Amino acid sequence: EAGASVLLLRACLALLAWPIYLLSFLGMWEPFCRKVFFPFFLEKIGAAHEKKSKKHKQELFRNLPDFRGPSGELRLLEIGTGGGTNFQFYPAGCKVTCTDINPHFQESLTKNMKKNQHLHYEQFLVAAGEDLHQVPSGSVDAVVCTLVLCSVQSVSSTLREVLRVLRPGGAFYFLEHVAAEHSSWRYFWQRVCYPTWKLIFAGCCLTRELWKNLEEAKFSELKIQHISVAMPWMPIEPHIVGYGVK
């Protein structure tokens, strides 16, 4: 019964978004979305999400300095850097390597680099989370990933790469939106929005149970907290936040 309602409401949503489905069919939406729409949208929604999640991020990144390498330096790799909204939370002197599958965030990235001159920016790699072959194994002390695991092709491959590039004793930090409780209305609406949302927002999946992937990955220690980040009219309230140690 719920399944039929989900399908019906999905169809209604697809009708409302038909111009985007048409552009997608013609192969025109994806390049426009990558170059123009997604960076613009991410900057706008990113600002709202940033306000709501700021205290969670401050708390999350507080112990980053504990993972400095033997040399006393902290080498950090960020997967899906986007416009660089996390830079403000990294400790002074931290050496940052930025990676993103989408190279079209230059404008906000440059702005955030200028704002955060307490960091050393090593390099920017155009790379997917599942394939960080440009980064040597065991070469970083910390990997950061916020609001990225929802849209990678394969969560398990991404976590395998995270564990490969981390040195033993290094840490993986995450803050991600996840599937709601299955019996909830929120989960019902996540299922309704799923196909249209995924198309509009560059492959973002609403119903991933990412805590399961993290539990299956081979971290020696894992701290996960389930939290709610209030985003009005958005089906992305339930989040997980925490870190895993290699």
From TrEMBL:
<dbReference type="GO" id="GO:0008757">
    <property type="term" value="F:S-adenosylmethionine-dependent methyltransferase activity"/>
</dbReference>
<keyword id="KW-0472">Membrane</keyword>
<dbReference type="InterPro" id="IPR029063">
    <property type="entry name" value="SAM-dependent_MTases_sf"/>
</dbReference>
<keyword id="KW-1133">Transmembrane helix</keyword>
<keyword id="KW-0812">Transmembrane</keyword>
<dbReference type="Pfam" id="PF08241">
    <property type="entry name" value="Methyltransf_11"/>
</dbReference>
<feature type="transmembrane region" description="Helical">
    <location>
        <begin position="7"/>
        <end position="29"/>
    </location>
</feature>
<dbReference type="InterPro" id="IPR052356">
    <property type="entry name" value="Thiol_S-MT"/>
</dbReference>
<feature type="domain" description="Methyltransferase type 11">
    <location>
        <begin position="77"/>
        <end position="174"/>
    </location>
</feature>
<protein>
    <submittedName>
        <fullName>MET7A protein</fullName>
    </submittedName>
</protein>
<dbReference type="InterPro" id="IPR013216">
    <property type="entry name" value="Methyltransf_11"/>
</dbReference>
